[in-house]
Design a protein that fits this description.
By secondary structure, this protein is mainly β. The strands form 3 sheets. Strands 1-4-7-10-13-16-19-21-22 form a 9-stranded mixed β-sheet. It starts with a helix and ends in a 6-residue tail after the last strand.
Length: 203
């Protein structure tokens, strides 16, 4: 069975087995793993960690699930090499289908959900927490992030806590998203604002 996956791939099979004995999670070279206690994992598809394009080589990556975290995979999802992904104690990360290109930085402290058919470009940051409190009333340190289906996020964009990005939305390169983006809209700028409605994109 493994021969079907081994051809043309540089997969670390021991690490893959330690995460998921059915090889639904494939771990590529230079991925540093940290798996805490009582981690819940449900994979209804396949997750490829630290993948690369042909002959591009592998960059150091980090995949860390702290204690009592949840990882839910609803489809086939790729996270390319050079990423840093951490789920803090009690956090939940849900991934649908699609990919995140090189150099992603994902910090999940409460709940991050990414939908189906999602395309996320290079060096994108997604965080659902500020990690520090601001002095004043009504400040929540962490709030969930939801990215809908068929969303395209451009390179060097930043998605911050409490944000919902609607289905079919496009986030321009370099945007810093601090507020919700409705479905079918193009958002750009720092902070990001909707600059066009009724957009559609294809791969």
């Amino acid at each position: 069975m493994l021969d079907r996956y081994r051809r043309g791939l540089s997969i670390h099979y021991i690490r893959s087995f330690l995460i998921n004995r059915h090889f639904n999670v494939l771990v590529f070279p230079k991925v540093k793993l940290g798996i805490g206690k009582k981690v819940k994992m449900r994979v209804n598809g396949r997750l490829r960690l630290g993948d690369t394009y042909d002959k591009n080589g592998y960059l150091p990556s980090m995949f860390k699930l702290n204690d009592q975290t949840s990882l839910v995979i609803h489809g086939n999802f790729r996270i390319y090499s050079g990423f840093r992904l951490s789920v803090d104690d009690g956090g939940c990360l849900e991934l649908g289908s699609g990919y995140i290109n090189y150099g992603a930085n994902i910090g999940c402290f409460r709940h991050i959900k990414i939908g189906n058919n999602v395309a996320i470009s290079e060096n994108v940051t997604i965080r659902d927490s500020d990690n520090h409190s601001l002095i004043g009333q009504g400040h929540a340190v962490s709030q969930p992030v939801t990215i809908g289906n068929h969303v395209w996020i451009g390179m060097n964009a930043t998605i911050l806590k409490g944000v919902t990005i609607g289905d079919g939305a496009v986030i321009a390169a370099g945007a810093v998203v601090t507020k919700d983006v409705p479905e079918g809209c193009l958002a750009a700028g720092v902070p990001a604002k909707v600059i066009k409605e009724g957009v559609a994109w294809v791969k």
